[in-house]
Amino acid sequence: MASTEDTALFRDVFEANPDPIMIHDADTGTVVRANEAAGALLGCPPADVVGMHVGEFSPSGFSTADANALIAEAATSGSAQVEWTTEGPDGKSRRVEVSLERAVIEDVTRVVAFIHDVTEIRRQERKHTERSKQLQTLVENLPVVVFTLDPDGVFTYSAGRGLDELGLEPGELEGVSVFEAYGQYPDIVAAVEQALDGDEVRVTQKVDDLVFETWYRPVFDDDGELTQVVSVARDITALKRHEERVEALSEATNELLYSRTETAAADTVVHIAQRIVDQPLAAMWSYDDGDDTLSPIGATGAATDFAGVERPADLPEMGPESDENDIFHAGEPTVIEDYQALSNPSAPDMPMRTLLCLPLDDQGLLCIGSDTVSSFDTDERFLLEILAGTAAAALDRVERETRLKSKQTELERSNEALQQFAYIASHDLQEPLRMVSSYVDLLDSEYGDDLDDEAAEYMAFAIDGARRMQEMVNALLRYSRVETTSSEFEETDPEAVIDRTLDALQMRIEEVDASITVESLPPVEADPNQVGQVFQNLLENAIEYAVEAGIEPRIEVSADREDDEVVFTVSDNGPGIPDGDREDVFDIFHRTGAHDTEGTGIGLAVCQRIVLRHDGRIWVEPSEDGATFKFTLPAVTEVRGDD
Q: Half-sphere exposure of residue 242, counting CA atoms within 13 Å on the CB side?
């Protein structure tokens, strides 16, 4: 038997235990003792609990007979368990776990009920279960494949909607080795082996026609041993297809930049269109507003075979009455869901079904078709519309370049003919003019003394006219020789050129006491002899017109580098040029105002011709005092090394 001291200790432990404890009579099930916690559970003093039968505070549906049977089971077998939902004195439901244990107390067999409140535990368990279900639902519906591998590479879990693309059910791979299931895919085998070696791997892998972006992450235990590999594979087939389409569109843009003919541009466009939508039937028509007809200029091989023709040019035209012509004039991309349902198709005998027509502004029409009723998704339509815009711009550029090339050829022929005419005319006029001048001089020397004043005046006019005509012919010859007697461009020092020019004009400069100031002049890529002609003509004009106006010539020459060209400035203090004549001064044989100085009016025309040959510009700047000429020549753009 237990000592009095032990009994007191057990009693103290019984009363101090924070969990409710009841002691039941093994035969009747009544409570013979309860601690404070048990009283608190039932909302009454422990003494009031004593004598109560367990059926009185059991949950509904649990009868007194059920309670007695449970107590009897514990008394017989030694223990029993039950979990109840009970309502406390505060009205709140509690979930309690009751453990019944047989005990002999003071030589009497009793059943001790240990009651443990598991309300919070069960709430957390429910929450965990709900979250697990949510996570499982989420994983199962994610558009990816989620799987795990054990250290031997065997699938231990597989889920996700991405399995549908592989023709698999969730869990179907579990228990299968990845090396058996995907041994024919070297990329997958290599990535798995690397992950099983402990490396995290991110890789793009192909499985037949599908492309996956897969992440493999090794998981280790506390000892650093690999326990599993967790993987997520995302189907990026559509994304890769979109990238390929965008790349194809980019290629088309680059290729179209170098297309020089309609057919070359059309060939590029139809083949890129085929790549964008995986539709082999693509063709392109060019619009002729003269007869309001669209004529074929390009097609894929599949399109010509489908139409039963040998060349794209043999495809049917789209005349003014055709439905396709109406779509072109409407200017909006249009999907013909069933070509056979059109009232006025351009090719009624062609077994076309779905057709996408893309107007190319006012340049033409791009068509992509199918021999079945199909559709074009939003991505395809968007990229094709960009392609159509690029194609329209390319055709517009080709048209402009064709017109420009034709005009350039025409101008070159005209310029060549003009140069030939100027040279022949001036050259062939030399001999007749010399003859006229010679005979007029003979008449003057032989019979000049016999002429009266009026006849002498006429003779003077004839001599002066012949001389002036000779000067104009010589000037015209110089003008025509700007191209034919030119030299190759070379790095030229304008300061050295102008020094030689000043040497040539030295006597005239000293005669009129002219002052010429030259600033620093950057080097240019030019014909040095022709640059000298420009400077000489401008300086001579500035000197002569200032002297004619009674002004002591003051001339300044300067230059500034601007990007890839040098802008030269020649300004003087002469009488200047009227605003209305600033553009006309460069016309051949044109002289502004009335002048006493001799001249043909061709010097500035020669300057302009030389500057234009150097791809430069020459103009007269507005000036309140004197005249200011500016002209440009190409700057030296690279440092030349020693030869």
A: 9
Sequence-distant (≥ 6) Cβ neighbours of residue 255 within 8 angstroms: 268
CA 45 to chain centroid: 82
The answer to whether the beta carbons of residues 67 and 58 sit under 8 Å apart is yes
For 159-175, b/e burial (b = at least 16 CB within 10 A) is: bbebbebbeeebeebee
DSSP letters, 546-561, are HHHTT---EEEEEEEE
> Does the model's pTM come out above 0.70?
no
Question: Could you give the angle at the alpha carbon of 531 between the alpha carbons of 526 and 535, nearest 5°?
Answer: 155
Pick from 102, 65, 59: nearest CA to 83 = 59
Rounded to whole angstroms, how far apart are CA atoms 224 and 30? Answer: 57
Residue of 597, 618, 596, 601 lying closest to 609 (CA atoms): 618
Q: How far apart are alpha carbons 495 and 470 in whole angstroms?
A: 34
DSSP state of 170: T
Residues 394 and 255: beta-carbon distance below 8 Å? no
Q: Supply the angle between the helices 453-484 and 603-613 in degrees, to the nearest 10.
A: 0
pLDDT averaged over consecutive 10-residue blocks of the chain (643 residues)? 58 81 89 89 88 81 83 90 80 84 86 88 83 69 82 90 82 90 91 93 88 91 91 85 79 79 88 82 92 93 92 93 94 91 91 91 91 82 85 87 83 71 66 76 79 80 75 67 70 94 91 93 92 92 90 94 94 85 73 50 83 91 88 82 45
Strand 21-25 vs strand 31-34: parallel, antiparallel, or unpaired?
A: antiparallel
Is-contact 592 577, C-beta < 8 A?
yes
Burial pattern 584-595, b for ≥16 Cβ within 10 A else e, equals ebbebeebbeee
Number of H helices, E strands in the chain: 17, 22
Cβ distance 412 to 304 under 8 Å?
A: no
In our burial notation (b when 16+ CB lie closer than 10 A, e otherwise), range 255-290 reads: bbeebeebbbbbbbbbbbbbbbbebbbbbbbbbeee
DSSP result, 592-616: -S--SS---S-HHHHHHHHHHHTT-
Report how far residue 350's alpha carbon sits from residue 26's, in angstroms, rounded to the nearest whole number: 98
